[in-house]
Amino acid sequence: MTEHLVVIGGDAAGMSAASQARRRRGPDELRITAFEQGDFTSYSACGIPYWVGGQVPDRDSLIARTPAEHRERGIDLRLRTRVTEIDLDRRRVRSRRTDGDSGGGTSGDGGSGGPEEWTGFDQLVIATGAEPLRPPLPGFDAPGVHGVQTLEDGAALLATLRRDVRRAVVVGGGYIGVEMAEAMIQRGLQVTVVHRSAEPMATLDPDMGRLVRVAMEGMGIEVVPGAEAKEVLLNADGRPRAVLTTVGEHPADVVVLGLGVRPRTALARAAGLALGDSGGLRTDSSMRVEGAEGIWAGGDCVEVLNLVSGQHQHIALGTHANKHGLVIGTNIGGGRATFPGVVGTAVSKVCELEIARTGLREREATAAGLSFDRAVIEATSRAGYYPGAAPMTVKMIAERGSGRMLGLQIVGREGAAKRVDIGAVALTAGMTVDQVVSLDLGYAPPFSPVWDPVQVAARKLVSGRAVSGT
Amino acid sequence: MTEHLVVIGGDAAGMSAASQARRRRGPDELRITAFEQGDFTSYSACGIPYWVGGQVPDRDSLIARTPAEHRERGIDLRLRTRVTEIDLDRRRVRSRRTDGDSGGGTSGDGGSGGPEEWTGFDQLVIATGAEPLRPPLPGFDAPGVHGVQTLEDGAALLATLRRDVRRAVVVGGGYIGVEMAEAMIQRGLQVTVVHRSAEPMATLDPDMGRLVRVAMEGMGIEVVPGAEAKEVLLNADGRPRAVLTTVGEHPADVVVLGLGVRPRTALARAAGLALGDSGGLRTDSSMRVEGAEGIWAGGDCVEVLNLVSGQHQHIALGTHANKHGLVIGTNIGGGRATFPGVVGTAVSKVCELEIARTGLREREATAAGLSFDRAVIEATSRAGYYPGAAPMTVKMIAERGSGRMLGLQIVGREGAAKRVDIGAVALTAGMTVDQVVSLDLGYAPPFSPVWDPVQVAARKLVSGRAVSGT
């Protein structure tokens, strides 16, 4: 008998799941219907800052697989169609065409459109993604104030940038904030980043975030800490004139929002599915929604297990979404796959500055009830005598007593960011700092000092341990 | 009572051991004497190709710590002094000043010089390094035929390059061979690499070595496989005219030898210390020579345990030598440290081409009695749409049945080499390919596709397993 798989959400997690299930089970065995409220499938939202900045020439470059390509593979893809209800009892979803809607809004919030339709399912994949935080404050919905989550958002921002804009204010100092600061610099604008915390990149410890701020300032970016946005002040034409924050008024012709996202789970909540503390769906390691048979979830709408802290958290990243999709599609396709969890790895850059983290920040380690030691060292990306050797600062923390590595942060230039992978694998394996010192990492003068910077940090922790143990 | 530590060999392993021991025990507790037959200490032999190539401006850039710096730290350093005998029964070494010798020769082979002297020891570190293979064939000791192991070698080669030389033949297609090919290209010479195996870089599988050959040929380097050197043919002035191999005559004004090295263990052998099959000293994980109390060895003169194959092998690499020195110095200094072994990681480059390997080649896996599957994939260093995304080929092998990763090889452009660290850490942890697929690696478009190339290879092995398991 043919099973029916319904997928809600046509981006990374949803379409990876659909594709993988299709690869394993042909149309005779598995019918697949996917609902997507927008016009696009399988695109790289992470690439939007580089499209806006001009490093990526056009929108289509960001699309990994088009609707037509999915349809060719036997997936019944319904674009511009919003799922408005999940009926778990009767195993069906209600949907409505959104043609004629203002488009791109959040799902599950009603709105006008075409007639409603019910579609039954045997297996359901919830991949509704995340929605950007947009403060309900005056002026934040004006033209010229832009989120950057969807391709439509990117196109709208680019349209604004074609106007006579000179000064950009980026609200938020996290990954999206710093990447959009770079994009605005690339476009030749004068850039101010306003953010709430003491230092930008609050996913790093403040001492490392400080390095990011200093580097950004060196690039001519104005960084305003401790600034809570209050209002976007508008010109007579209804477009931005300035952003008003708790610390002042920051002139702006264009405003970019990088305030992070939250899981888009209104549909799932309404259906009675269990959500975690973060507001994301809680799944087991096979990506099955806890307590619900044949209901799967992945991507930015779920929360994930942090293997270092043992706690669940919400992390919206395309790389996780793709893995979730692979796992879900494999399992629906009759295989067995699991997503064991994350270690909190993230890399980013702002112009020449590379920023990376994995594992726990100090605050997270403390919250997880761990006591720890820290080491911060300076090193270079290549042998010091080799041309292009770039400085980097490496911070590592390790559990006191056991020496188990807990976290790694790197801020530097070329060659800094991907070094964090050493830490990501070591954290996954539960290695101690002594084990990290012994790792057989690639060494040659063009690629690394004879001790890799990550090992220099680990050595410092080991020698600290040795001293404190005496 | 003051103990006396004697170190034989003033480069990475020996002087790291001395420095680390000194850091932990002051001169009142530990007297340290180090013998070095040459003029230099603690230098980067791995950097010589870049000094010769001109990327590194001068010899002194390669010296990490000068003799004077070691002496300031209370190490009695005897330069130009060769140890000629280790007397284990009476715990003493015999040494002789080599001033006036032809210099730079192998140790333990007698020769004239100053008077002999005996020095007693409580602890002995043997760090005699490795000696380059130089075939006992006609012409190979002529001026204009150069090894590149010591700073003296580098200076001699540079002196030759200042003459009117146009054509270089590099004998050997391994790391030293390809790095010296790059150096000769940098110097504007016409370069031929002759080597015995079917493809260069025999530390890779032949299918990956082939990529290196094709890339080298694209750079204008002539690569001659299956060529066993027979003679260096000389001009009337006693300098090279051509290299004669089993496949022909290759015109050369300068000849560079990159035939690899073997452990320099004549002294240790004469003293009755046990050597492994590779000819290297065999130590336990604390770097103590097996069966000998208070005798330590590290660096290029020892063999190391390969954690993947479980077998011992000889790998001459500065990064291992430094770790050995740290471990030895820590243990002599009253701490506890171990060197658990290696996984066979090595990275190199030839011009823009990056070359990396870790774990076992197919041949090594077979020799270790393992059956395995292989995957070879093409990927890019960054998101495909991001500027500068460079192609790379990734090969992974995994044990059939268990799925345990066994080896990883990468050939590509910028961003290829250090990715091998992901494999190095995963191999150390004994991860399966499924676990590699799940790794939380750093992702952002400027740094990686959404699936890291290493994970793409692992995915292919996983799906092969899934298919073969059906």
TrEMBL record, chains A, B:
Family indicated by similarity: Belongs to the class-III pyridine nucleotide-disulfide oxidoreductase family.
Pfam family, one: Pyr_redox_dim
Cofactor names: FAD
UniProt keyword annotation of Oxidoreductase present: yes
Gly residues composition-biased segments: 101-114
InterPro entries with a match to the protein in the record: FAD-bd_OxRdtase, FAD/NAD-bd_sf, FAD/NAD-binding_dom, FAD/NAD-linked_Rdtase_dimer_sf, Pyr_nucl-diS_OxRdtase_dimer
Taxonomic classification: Bacteria, Bacillati, Actinomycetota, Actinomycetes, Kitasatosporales
Residues in the signal sequence: none
SUPFAM superfamilies in the record: FAD/NAD(P)-binding domain (SSF51905), FAD/NAD-linked reductases, dimerisation (C-terminal) domain (SSF55424)
Keyword tags: FAD, Flavoprotein, Oxidoreductase, Redox-active center
The organism's place on the tree of life at top rank: Bacteria
Region (Disordered): 93-119
Name of protein: FAD-dependent oxidoreductase
Domain (FAD/NAD(P)-binding): residue spans on this chain: 4-319
Domain Pyridine nucleotide-disulphide oxidoreductase dimerisation as annotated: residue spans: 348-450
